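Friendly challenge for the regulars: who can give me the structure tokens for this chain first? No prize, just bragging rights.
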Amino acid sequence: QVQLVESGGGLVQPGGSLRLSCAASGDTLDRYIIGWFRQAPGKEREGVSCIGRSAGSTTFADSVKGRFTISRDNAKNTVYLEMNSLKPEDAAIYYCAADPRAYYCSPYGPKTAHYDYWGQGTQVTVSS
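First reply, four minutes later:
Bragging rights claimed.
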């Protein structure tokens, strides 16, 4: 089964940028669609973005559309979440997860129940 490790989180000022990475081992990433989720203290985990097995299938939560992009490099077995124009409300622990069944992202956004494999998360803090 696939193991996922997130990296790239940190402290950034409002308006700044970060690129998160989700590196896979144990299996090839092109067998999965990959979702990014985030969870802020006291809130439920929410879907942020998804990329299908074909990189042409992507979805974004309304709150991040136009600011975040998602990409995959199957040769490096890695998915990236590029986050720009960060806001304090983007602060959370960000998780990547893998769904082994679907090929395309759901048009309704990534749902935690559909993803079998999860990374440990990386903290993103947005503060001046």
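The chain has a mean pLDDT of 95. The chain has no helices and eleven strands. Your move, everyone else.
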